[in-house]
Design goal:
323 residues; 12 helices; mainly alpha
Amino acid sequence: RTFLTGVSLMAIGTLFTAFSLGFYSLFFFTLLSSFGLTLYVPSLIQLLSRFFEKNDRGLGIGLLGSTVRISAASTFMIAPLVLLGTDSWRWLFMILGSISCMIALFLYHRLSLFDIEEEPSSDSSSLVTTFKNILNEKIIILTAICRIFLGGSSQSFAGFLPFLLQLTGTSLGSSSFVLALFWVSQGAGTILVPKLSDIIKKRVILVTILGLIASVSLILLAFTWGNIILSIVLSIILGFIFAGITEILFLIPISDPVIAKKYSGGATGFLMTFGALGALSSNLFLGYLLDYSASVIWTSLAFIASLQLLLAFFSIFMRRSVS
């Protein structure tokens, strides 16, 4: 029920964004879509933790995340065609919103055919109790701190990549192509890296290694930014790594049998909140740095690389706690 409510709110918010009358209505419908996202992702991962065994959850979460990212890639391919063909951003949201509403109706119909057991309801203090339990789990707290660094780096890179492409004179079509490849690589990373972590079992070590590779790739990207081929290759590598680390940081806590059974949905929401805080604070701080920077590209990529280094080194201290 929570999952379907979240999907419906996202679909309605996206569709009505096309009919916004001004900034405040646009902000409200965007907020509505975001609220739907916060509802359906934790509930969906909670369902995955029930349907997949501990050693197979990487595959389940990977399939989920890859679908989301490949959908984002297709949007980047469709957007320029709609914007250039109609000269109106409203048509883009109208098309995406209509598709989302049809998907929501399809899910209501299909899921009603399955007998999915609802979690038993508890008293009014259950939310407070769950929050206290989460705060007592050291694994979740340490993972949440890693999510701050990851959210700051991955979202800053995804947000500033279009800006950096346009800054260097890349056309709208080429920029959309690069962004589409970036999101496709995220889809691949979302499937392959969590599945790899199911096999090797050293998820925290994998986070450290990938974080170091990402930081090196960001520095190389700063050196080779004028070369469009190398920029595409490194952006693909970064998309692959960012997505893989994101899913592993969901897997680390919910692979614990106690957390998966009792409050995997609450733990997921907790981690998403910390990731969002990292993205918000890093974007604000990076924007402040760029106001006083002589080199936008170097400042942006060096800042994001430093966050990946913090993620890599902090994950080392998680090893004993999650072993």
